[in-house]
Amino acid sequence: MSAYAAAHTAQAGARVLAALDESKVTPGVTGFLVVALLGIALWFLLRSFVRHLGRVRFDEDAVEQREVGRAGAASADGRRAREGRRTQDGRHP
Fold first, then answer.
1. Where are the domains of the chain?
2. Which of 14, 37, 80, 84 has the most CB atoms within 10 Å of its CB?
């Protein structure tokens, strides 16, 4: 690269930097559209989330009964193993 080309490139770069005023640079329409689309997508996601949570039915009593049943079955399997019997599915525990 010749000295003239290097000087010309440096001058062009300086003009571009002088033309860009940092207080006037904005994201523009593209930035606005991206943020707006993300906001709309988030709104739909949260709406779906609330709808799915509304469909969930939680019965605490059923959970407790299931846990008690599992604990009882585990102790019964332990007794069968100590007595030399097989479990309901025919395996030795």
1. 25-90
2. 80
* Sign (positive or negative) of CA dihedral 34, 39, 42, 47: negative
Q: List the structure tokens of 39.
A: 């906001």
Token couple for 37 = 């689309």
Residue 3 exposure: Cα atoms within 13 Å on the Cβ side: 0
Cβ(87)–Cβ(80) below 8 Å: yes
Q: 49 pLDDT band (50/70/90 cuts)?
A: very high
Assign 58 a pLDDT band (cuts: 50, 70, 90).
Answer: confident
